[in-house]
């Protein structure tokens, strides 16, 4: 599902447009839904990012299909500028202080710290770790990586060549 209708252009091909009324706000929102096919060659990536061991104390937000837990792989060399661009396009958002949030809600705090340290050590991207809204309200929740405003230019340099033009607004472009 796309984040907004402005991103419709990146969904070339078949998709289904659906509208719904948000009972809380009284506003009507429109989504574009599309489906992709799974290829057996991609199974290696699935096993890299999902732990087959089910931990009964794991929050549901960290579970994938079949009860498998989302994990950060030990080999962070997979986090290339291209991968970071896709991460920002899908799960990045502008912060109120011109920084950039990366959603890491599905990972435990140790994994989020490892990702943050990797971004700093590999790309000199300065980050902090913020509690998500639910965690702040004492309702469980998780942590997110916040890329400091002073590092957004570094991020732009690394990932703009890989970003679709409809997504560059996430970098303030």
TrEMBL record:
GO molecular function: endonuclease activity
Domain of life: Eukaryota
SUPFAM superfamilies per the UniProt record, alphabetical: Homing endonucleases
Organism of origin: Termitomyces sp
Pfam families documented for this protein: LAGLIDADG_2
Function: Mitochondrial DNA endonuclease involved in intron homing.
Keyword annotations: Endonuclease, Hydrolase, Mitochondrion, Nuclease
Domain Homing endonuclease LAGLIDADG, residue spans: 24-153
Protein name: LAGLIDADG homing endonuclease
């Amino acid at each position: 599902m796309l984040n907004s209708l402005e991103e419709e252009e990146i969904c070339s091909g078949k998709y289904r447009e659906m509208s719904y009324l948000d009972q809380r706000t009284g506003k009507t929102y429109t989504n574009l839904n599309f489906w992709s096919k799974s290829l057996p060659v991609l199974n290696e990536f699935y096993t890299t990012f999902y732990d087959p061991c089910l931990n009964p104390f794991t929050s549901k937000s960290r579970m994938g299909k079949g009860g498998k837990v989302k994990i950060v792989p030990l080999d962070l060399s997979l986090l290339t500028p291209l991968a970071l661009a896709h991460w920002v396009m899908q799960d990045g958002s502008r912060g109120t202080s011109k920084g950039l949030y990366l959603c890491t809600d599905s990972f435990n705090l140790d994994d989020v710290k490892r990702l943050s340290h990797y971004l700093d050590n590999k790309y000199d991207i300065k980050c902090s770790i913020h509690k998500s809204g639910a965690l702040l309200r004492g309702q469980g929740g998780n942590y997110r990586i916040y890329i400091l405003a002073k590092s957004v230019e570094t991020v732009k340099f690394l990932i703009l060549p890989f970003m679709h033009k409809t997504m560059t607004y996430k970098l303030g472009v």
